[in-house]
Design goal:
Layout: H1 14-22, H2 45-63, H3 68-84, E1 87-90, H4 97-103, H5 108-114, H6 116-119, E2 131-134, H7 140-149, H8 151-166, H9 170-174, H10 186-200, H11 206-216, H12 229-232, H13 245-251, H14 263-278
Antiparallel strand pairs: 1-2
Length: about 290
């Protein structure tokens, strides 16, 4: 009888028998790599610092995206310009401060005050391509609306002035539409005309203009000749220097009023005509 315990096969558990049957031998538990030794972000100081740094850099990079700064600056400038409410006007050849003021619906004094640094000490001398700031904050559309709203009243006023001028009421007819830098009288009209003539290269002197004005109209800007050959032809002589409409239109100087009864427009157009035919208004000593 075999000795007790000799050649005894050890008892195997059901699990061990299954492993053996599969040919894997004895299997030890396997610990997943990194599951024990890898610290979570909350446990690792270095990870905390890296996460915080990345969080801070993200907004900074986003704010430096291409074009963002330029767009922000452009928007700010546009907003500031819109809030200012000011318009601008680029001076063209032949324009005057008074003419610009009239078309932009402000007084020439306000226009000059707003642009004194650009214009200089003499409001009668403005240079081409100067960018003027138009005070008041009224947009072009608003100005157009204001103009159309008062158009009927202005038309009536103009008709009354024409009637008074033809009737010999010089004071009413001579009243200019806006204040002039040199004053609303004959002296101021001549000086204003000379400023424009110098800018346009039209010859003439104060005395030459004054002499001819006194002979033609006695200084009345509303004067009209209703008895000579021109009048019989339907084109009477008008204004300070007694210019007929065809001549006024032909020698009109840009930047002045399109009205032969306007003192400055009349003087400048007549002087332009005299320069073309006689060399200068100074050479005119009689009917021309």
């Amino acid at each position: 009888m075999p000795s007790i315990g000799k050649h005894r096969r050890p008892k195997n558990s059901a699990l061990m028998r299954r492993l053996a049957a599969a040919g894997t031998g004895i299997a030890l538990p396997v610990i997943a790599v990194g599951t024990v030794n890898a610290a979570t972000p909350s446990e690792n100081p270095a990870a905390k610092a890296a996460a915080a740094s990345a969080h801070q850099e993200a907004p900074a990079k986003a704010s430096k995206a291409p074009g963002t700064t330029a767009k922000t600056n452009a928007t700010a400038k546009a907003t500031a310009k819109a809030k200012s409410g000011h318009r601008t006007h680029v001076v063209r050849s032949g324009e005057t401060l008074e003419g610009i003021a009239r078309t932009t619906h402000v007084s020439w004094q306000r226009l000059y005050a707003a642009n004194k640094q650009k214009i200089g000490p003499n409001p009668n001398t403005i240079h081409r391509d100067t960018v003027l700031t138009i005070p008041g904050g009224q947009s072009a559309k608003g100005a157009e609306a204001a103009t159309s709203g008062t158009g009927h009243a202005k038309a009536q006023a103009g008709t009354q002035q024409r009637t008074a001028a033809r009737g010999g009421a010089a004071a009413a007819a001579a009243a200019p539409a806006a204040a002039r830098p040199h004053g609303s009288n004959l002296d101021g009209w001549i000086r204003q005309s000379l400023d424009i003539m110098r800018e346009r290269g039209i010859p003439g002197s104060y005395n030459g203009i004054l002499r001819n004005v006194m002979r033609e109209s006695a200084g009345n800007p509303g004067a009209i000749n209703n008895w000579d050959s021109n009048a019989k032809a339907g084109i009477p002589s008008k204004g300070l220097l007694q210019v007929i409409d065809p001549t006024f239109r032909a020698y009109h100087v840009q930047g002045t009023a399109h009205d032969p009864y306007d003192p400055v427009a009349n003087i400048v157009a007549a002087s332009n005509y005299a320069a073309s035919r006689y060399g200068s208004i100074d050479n005119v000593h009689g009917a021309y």
